[in-house]
Amino acid sequence: MLLNKEQIMEIMKNEKYPLTLKYDPEWIIENQMGSHCLWLQESLVQVMDIKPNMRILDLGCGKAISSIFLAKEFGVHVWANDLWISASENWERIRKAGVENLVYPIHAESHKLPYADNFFDAIVSINSIQFYGTDQLYLKNHLVKYVKSGGQIGIIVPGLYNEFDGNIPEYIKPYWENDFYTWHSPQWWSNHWGRTELVDIEIADTLPDNEGYEIFRKSEMMVNSEHKLVLADEGRNISFVRIIARKK
Ligand SMILES: C[S@@+](CC[C@H](N)C(=O)[O-])C[C@H]1O[C@@H](n2cnc3c(N)ncnc32)[C@H](O)[C@@H]1O
Q1: Which one of 132, 162, 173, 176 is at 20 to 30 Å from 54 when CA atoms are compared?
Q2: Rounded to an integer, what distance in angstroms lies between the CA atom of residue 33 and that of residue 239?
């Protein structure tokens, strides 16, 4: 169902994300890349230890509004790292948001990050790591070294309540694409990272109360679009998965 502007603005008033309520809905819609990234960021940091003055990597930050949000809400320093969006474009947005002393735009590919080992107090990644982080060696060779011992890595990604055992269900098959094979369950992520023994898994869950489905559905409605796969699934399998790991 396609909505008018008033209806879209009404959907944005989501009391589950009180910090996000402070932000201009049009600015969020204009800058989200996929699902509503401030809802995703807020649902992630609700279960992380974020304190003022921390150094945080926002990996795959897109248009950097999740980085701007972190700086404004928590007074942290954020390295807003992305590949598809240039550092210059993000710098303009960061400056306009008035957080140029806290958010630093970086254009870098996730296997060639330009950071010092043990530099960050925490790493977050919103709706991004499914594009490059599911291979066996990514955590070890390309991610965990950049966070200090005792620091958290928090990711939120499209995923599944449970892995499909063999076959994709018939009701979603027409909409399934190969890219979605990187969507996994909390249990899968927990094993994937936990068995490396480089981190302790603190949280591996899906957003509660079918909230993952609602975020997908509403995010699409806000841009007058429909995610056919998610709608056909009706919240039976697909959600947003949160993993919080702490480096040993
Ligand atoms: C779906 S967008 C999400 C962006 C933003 N986090 C948001 O939620 O609006 C995925 C992001 O992952 C980034 N990305 C994909 N592959 C990447 C790679 N190999 N290295 C660094 N970033 C990558 C893209 O640049 C893109 O901005």
Answers
A1: 132
A2: 17
Which residues, in sequence order, are CB contacts of 162 under 8 Å at separation 6+?
Answer: 185, 187, 237
Report the predicted TM-score, pTM, of the whole model to 2 decimal places.
Answer: 0.97
Q: Give the closest residue to 13 by CA, choosing from 21, 3, 2.
A: 21
pLDDT digits (tens, 9 = 90+) for 183-222: 999 999 999 999 999 999 999 999 999 999 999 999 988 8
Give, using CA atoms, the residue closest to atom 27 of ligand 1: 62
CB within 6 Å of ligand 1 — which residues? 32-34, 37, 60-62, 66, 82-85, 109-110, 126-128, 131-132
Q: Where are the domains of the chain?
A: 5-247
pLDDT digits (tens, 9 = 90+) for 141-164: 999 999 999 999 999 999 999 999
Report the CATH number of the 5-247 domain: 3.40.50.150
Tell me how far the alpha carbon of residue 92 lies from the centroid of ligand 1, in angstroms. Answer: 18
Token digits of residue 87:
């550092």
